[in-house]
Structures are given as structure tokens and as C-alpha cells.
Amino acid sequence: MTTQQLHEQILQKKSFLCVGLDPDLAKIPQHLLETEDPIFEFNKAIIDATHDLTVGYKPNTAFFEAYGIKGWMSLQKTINYINENYPDIFTIADAKRGDIGNTSSMYAKAFFEDLNFDSVTVAPYMGKDSVEPFLAFENKHTIMLALTSNEGAFDFQTLNTNGKELYKQVLETSKTWKNSENLMYVVGATKAEYFTEIRKIVPDSFLLVPGIGAQGGSLSEVCKYGMNDKVGLLVNSARAIIYASKGTDFAEKAREEALKVQQEMAEIIGLKFQV
Length: 275
Description:
Helices cover 45% and strands 16% of the residues. With 275 residues, the protein is an alpha/beta fold.
């Protein structure tokens, strides 16, 4: 999916919601544990209930890797199900990979070719040669960690080095890398006050924004400072949606929570784009 196609989907659905798929066997409804593949059945129900309200799904690979080969099989079944049934959905492998050249090439191959995700999250700490192997894949997107929503983000990301915060240097440097037009960036919703500065550096890039909902980020603040003339945002919500209920009505309740977010987004899009 190109960024233009993603923008068109956003306007069509009046939504820039991305639903995080973080399946935890300790949290999913008990009745699903009796099925052959509880993780896939949980994901499938959430997807079927919310696909018209969201433009993206973001499986966090840790929640699959934790269950070994069975977890990986559930992940493969999940991404195949999305690609086959809802091809207009943008898919994100939240894997936060980042290693030296050959290893990164293999990580990229795993997520872009074998699993056929549209994008993958990466950590840029090791620099250019850890990210460019992902950028080499045509019509695929690399979502680089820029300024995250966790408490420890202040340990390094906002440190002032040579008169400039580190996250700004990371953003500026990434623009010089080969195929940097395939880059998107992770910026936490709890860092809304930073969006103005970030947009000065990457005005046209899509930003993946976690931290709405359970983590307390403000959608209106994110949009006020982070939205560009192509919307340019994918706002992720996971726990507040997928764990809205532990009962047999979990998918219905997930839809209700997703709809609340989508309706707020539709109002924002309507005001800005007259759609």
C-alpha cells in the first residue's frame, strides 16, 4: 500500500485508527481457550468487528513470540486473514527490530516477504546500516522509533547533544538515508507538545502514534499539533479496544470502543478536510 492509498482509505473511512493486536492468553475471554487456536480466534473476532472503523492493524510480535511456534503460526494466520479478507487494511508488524546489515535484511525478508506485512517497526540505535535494509523493499514501509510514549524515553531520546535533542538528530539524519521516502515514525501520544517540532523536520511523513486510550494520550492534542495536509497520522489503540470485555460479547464491546474513537476522528477530519 502506498501512502497515497493509505490517505485515501483514511478519508473514505473517516478514520486514522490503528488497532493494536496484543493477544494475551491470561486476558482473552475464557471460552476461547477451548478452541484450537485461541489467539487467532480472538484476533479474527476483533478484526471482523472493527475492520470498517480502522485503517490499520498492528500485531505486536512479542505477544505471539511468547508462545513459541504456536504463536508464530497464530501470527501468520492473522496476517493472512487480514490480507485475504480486508486487503484495504494497512498492516504493521510491531517487532522493533534493528541490527547490522545482513541480520536486518533477514528480519526485513521475514516480515515483508514471508509474512507479507505492509510495514515493520525498527529501532535506529545502530544507525543507517541497520535501517536501510528495510527501506530497500519496494512498496513497503519502515516505521522508525523517534520519540516514544514510555517513561524511559527521557533517558536518551530527549538528551541535548551538541545543542540539539537526540530525537531531532535521529529524525534529521534518517532523511539522508537511501529510500528514506519509505520511512514513517513512531511518536508517542503522551508527547503531544513535541509534535510541532517534529513536524518541522518531517512535515510530510506518516506518524504512528501509540498512547491513546489506556496510556492517557489526548487525540485532540495529537491532531492539533501532529496532523498535516494528508492527515499523516495513524493513531494506535490496543488495550482500550481489544479488552473492552472478557465475556462472550468481547468483539461487540471492542467495536463500541473503536466506534467512539472513529467518530471523534471523523469529526476532526470533517472539520479539516470538509469530507
